[in-house]
Amino acid sequence: xxxxxxxxGRRLYLPPFRVDLEIRAGVPRLVPASALARLLRSxxxxxxxxxPATVGLVLADDRELARLNRTFLGKPGATDxxxxxxxxxxxxxxxxxxxxxxxxxxxxxxxxxxxLPPGTRLHLGDIVVSVERAIRQAAEGHGGQTGDIRSAPPxxxxxxxxxxxxxxxxxxxxxxxxxxxxxxxxxxxxAAG
Length: 193
Prior knowledge:
The chain has about 190 residues and is α/β, with parallel strands linked by helices. It has helices at about 35-45, 60-75, 130-140, 155-170, 175-190, and strands at about 5-15, 15-25, 55-60, 80-85, 120-130.
């Protein structure tokens, strides 16, 4: 993740993880960078992310999220958070509600520890959050885990960062049982946060 002239970047070391934070120009700073990095570290630890590792966190706007959503997911319009994991869900520990992994004949899951030379940090992927959308969702009462909660914009941003971190670790919310487990874990991370 390289910072463009219209961005500011920062590396935050929270052993065993490093968070490469990039904030696009004009994006409001609702939560201190260190607090977002701590929440993301908590999400990665809860998700069983391999250590040591790095993760990219980009705070952007609706325009950038709309472009990414269209380019990578084929969906029109902006969304609140997108995660781009570099490891398959099978690289992380199984979690409640997750669908059973069905490996094909002769396939096996390789531990991420063997992907890089010793002493090298594994990059887990990137998370891109629309701060613009977090502010709007919170103010309009379309935020929170259920999409019908009015909250403070910083709280919505915290939730989206944790949510994106869990997605990097193979969590999803397509199935009701996994969604319930994911939401409970998000609440626990935010409460401890």
